[in-house]
Design goal:
heterodimer; A: 4-stranded antiparallel β-sheet; B: 0% helix
Amino acid sequence: AQSVTQPDIHITVSEGASLELRCNYSYGATPYLFWYVQSPGQGLQLLLKYFSGDTLVQGIKGFEAEFKRSQSSFNLRKPSVHWSDAAEYFCAVGRAGNMLTFGGGTRLMVKP
Amino acid sequence: DTGVSQDPRHKITKRGQNVTFRCDPISEHNRLYWYRQTLGQGPEFLTYFQNEAQLEKSRLLSDRFSAERPKGSFSTLEIQRTEQGDSAMYLCATPLEGEWGYTFGSGTRLTVV
């Protein structure tokens, strides 16, 4: 069965600092991987996705993620965090039928 | 505008009452998904439809839960005899155009008191 682990429940960074959110997955086949963001009281918004090809994928809002098969990881990065990036971030892996399994999320707080 | 409309946005109900939520995709999609998200957790898959047919149900979907998609467009999710453990955000989603992944609705937040 597939699973997703986001080891960091909370992360606090200063505005302007770089960010990396960790995601590890377990899946027997080639994974389809996603990052979603959820702001307080808002729905889930897709940041980026990986299906195949280039292991470094670019998303919206200046985010990128790198797929590393050898480490079963799909970490999310941003070079310079803005206060508006404060939100909860979810990593997910897809399986047949387009069902997604989500991680528990990482809550990002941004210090001024 | 998320492409998926859910109604109501919030629902407070007493334990033991029945509730029904509705999901309306703005554009036509063959598939429609329901997820549940409890506080501090990621969304968990409940069920999905291919047109009118309900193709898969999670073990999370007890006998008190029923979902329908009668005309292959909108969908309803009913919970009978609600329990406090049913308190959660119920999310509806439709596939991204031609690709994996979803567009999620804003959800219905259920509070059972």
